[in-house]
Amino acid sequence: MEPRLPGLDGIFVIHCKKGYEARARSIEKQLSKLPAGFEYILEKDAHELTPEDTGRFASSLSPGTQSVVCKHQIAHKLAYERGYERCLVLEDDALLSKNFSEKLPLVLAESRRLGEDHTVFLSSACHMYTPRSRLRKGTLLYEHDASRAADSYILTLTACKKRLEWLHSHPVHWPIDHLFNQMDRDLGLKFMWLGEPIVEQGSENGTFPSWVEGTPPAWLTALKWNAEKLYKKHILRNLT
User: Which domain holds residue 49?
Assistant: First the structure.
């Protein structure tokens, strides 16, 4: 099924070919509720990276981290080649809120009114919230000085083109979310956060194991996540 959401040209899901079947079942079930199709990005699993691929990266970055960057770059390349004015990029551990399908068209409409030189970050990342004092009735998107996580974002064609040009001329020293910080600042692209996030990252809240090597067990991740959410969303956010 081709995407039919107003203002959305495509949906890409970052995924591995094998070993993450629970994530696939989860994201497929969630996206089946949208009036849109989606496309997996399956190329460039960690074991498939060539010397040419790995030569672009700092040696401190793990194969899994390098793979994630490559997959996001493929999504950008496909969006650019197809001329997608706006597309949604999700990592396969994205957990969509109950009101995701209701809010997404409103977010897309506000993004169009803001122009093209920005990326919209939809999730709470590691509990990064717009201070409640900044929230305004009727406004969904707020400019910040950094990205959130790369688990869920709306990519404009302008941002896509500029990022691809940057990636073709610079080595990569950071994981994908920190890479967005560096690239987008260099390129003059704005970081727009959804004031009330509509995505959580399943590998951050303990729902799924992480792709990244050396992460703690799921139960410990969940415990830490819930404690930080209580503090940062319901206490700290109200004080800033």
Answer: 10-239
